[in-house]
Write a structure and sequence with these properties.
Number of domains of chain B: 2
Number of strands of chain B: 16
Distance between the termini of chain A: 41 Å
Number of domains of chain A: 1
Radius of gyration of chain B: 24 Å
Strand content of chain A: under 5%
Radius of gyration of chain A: 18 Å
Structural class of chain B: alpha+beta
Number of strands of chain A: 0
Shape of chain B: globular
Oligomer: heterodimer
Largest sheet of chain B: 6 strands, mixed
CATH architecture of the largest domain in chain B: 2-Layer Sandwich
Number of helices of chain A: 4
Structural class of chain A: mainly alpha
Helix content of chain B: 25-40%
């Protein structure tokens, strides 16, 4: 019971810290540059995953591997979310040098994980419907 | 963004060429098509006959066809002996994905109707209470050069140059369709009624010949039947022979135990078993699915790869030969 309370306490403290950091980052960033960072990060991360994604899509021709490749594709999309947030915060820091002193690792990893989990659930639902 | 690009300028310059090259080989279409091993579909999932239990021994074999493939796919597949890569035919180049799907569904419909008619006729010999009435209603368009406006795959041709199907046999009527200059009268189902349109066509040497299927309409069948298989996405005519055998065996109640039978070959109203595409890939599919007996058209027998097949191969020219083989083996 004590350890459970500890875990819950840790999670709450972590999310409070996350929310605080996001608030600080929001205060120090301009909307126009955030949009630029989003599009920049989208472009870079999509270009990076494009080739492996296309290789996987091409391999769908092996019908026996369809399920396996579909799972790999879901993993790749989950990985893409980490790449996207990595480049988003990297660009954001370039556009806003004031963010250099702020710990962006926590928002970056938290947001990446949330998006990756969303893609994982979506992937499981789609795969269970298709196969 | 520019700062990031400047930072990695050298690396980006080095990577851009392999990136574009890889993109090209992964996306660009070639003029090649592929046939790959597929799977089995149980005939019991395709046809339901009222008052009769369909036997679950019979399976049609399907293969996958893709066209066009990318250069990457052609390299990867070239090392796989179970897969056949070949240059796309004139017709394949001319067809859209929608057309190919329509072709698959149309040939499946015609094949199922022909199978029902043939199986009922064969079963009628031993069980006179089984009967079927049908009549001929012209031609289905299976392939037409895509530049012909107003003529779609699946359209029904009821008259050619003013000559109505009702005055001809199928063989005579289809011969009219290959005149170099024709005017088709098309019947198309729209909403709750039929619409009739005329389409003119002059054959040129650049065009591949059209392909037509007969449109037989079943007026009355005893026992009645349903075709749930029509809603499946798998299409094509190659299940004809095995569908006919499955319906026949179910109607005359031949006990074939738990033998797993698969097969391939189209079925004609004359009872002839026609050639199919991808026989090698169908043989591999049969091996992967552990079947016991495989029916195939005789004309393919000399083309199959030379290896030890773990099943009996029955090569036939007509459905009557296949029925006779089943009767001798299991009755």
């Amino acid at each position: 019971m004590k350890s459970l309370t500890k875990i819950i306490d840790f999670v709450f403290r972590f999310f409070r810290r996350f929310a605080k950091l996001v608030k600080i980052i929001d205060k120090k960033t301009a909307m126009k540059l955030v949009v630029k960072s989003v599009f920049g990060a989208l472009l870079i991360s999509v270009l990076i995953v494009l080739i492996p994604a296309l290789v996987m899509i091409n391999m769908f021709i092996y019908t026996k591997l369809k399920f396996f490749i579909s799972m790999l594709l879901v993993l790749l999309i989950m990985g893409w979310s980490f790449l996207y947030y990595y480049f988003y915060y990297r660009l954001l820091k370039i556009y806003h040098p004031a963010l250099e002193d702020i710990n962006t690792k926590i928002p970056q990893l938290t947001e990446s994980t949330i998006v990756a989990l969303f893609f994982m659930i979506l992937g499981i639902v789609v795969l269970s419907v298709v196969f | 963004m520019l700062q990031l690009i400047k930072q990695y300028k050298k690396l980006l310059i080095i990577l851009i060429f392999p990136f574009v090259y890889l993109l090209f080989v992964l996306v660009a279409p070639t003029q090649l098509a592929v046939i790959a091993p597929g799977g089995l579909t149980q005939v019991v999932e395709t046809i339901e006959i009222d008052g009769y239990e369909m036997v679950d021994n019979f399976n049609t074999i399907y293969v996958y066809t893709y066209s066009p493939i990318t250069p990457f796919q052609s390299w990867v597949l070239a090392i796989d002996e179970t897969i056949n890569i070949y240059p796309m035919t004139k017709r394949q180049k001319d067809l859209s994905m929608k057309d190919e799907f329509a072709q698959g569904q149309l040939s499946k419909l015609v094949s199922l109707k022909t199978s029902i008619i043939k199986a009922y006729e064969l079963a009628h010999d031993s069980k006179p209470e089984i009967s079927i009435d049908y009549h001929y209603e012209g031609l289905y368009v299976y392939y037409r050069p895509s530049h012909i406006e107003g003529l779609e795959i699946g359209d029904q041709i009821v008259a050619i140059n003013g000559r109505h199907y009702s005055d001809y046999t199928h063989e005579e009527f289809v011969a009219l369709a290959y005149d170099p200059e024709v005017e088709f009268t098309i019947k198309r189902i729209e909403g709750e009624g039929n619409i009739y349109e005329s389409v003119s066509y002059v054959y040129t040497e650049d065009d591949a010949y059209m392909i037509f299927y007969p449109d037989y309409v079943i007026d009355l069948a005893t026992p009645s039947f349903q075709l749930p298989g029509l809603s499946s996405l798998v299409g094509g005519p190659s299940g004809g022979l095995i569908q006919t055998l499955s319906i026949y065996v179910s109607l005359v109640n031949i006990n074939i135990g738990d033998v797993k039978i698969a097969g391939t070959g189209t079925i004609e109203m004359s009872g002839d078993v026609g050639r199919i595409g991808g026989i090698t890939q169908k043989m591999y599919t049969a091996i992967y699915n552990n079947i016991d007996i495989m029916f195939m058209p005789s004309s393919h027998y000399s083309e199959i790869p030379n290896m030890d097949y773990p099943f009996i191969i029955v090569a036939v020219d007509t459905v009557e030969e296949a029925v006779q083989w089943l009767n001798e083996e299991f009755n």
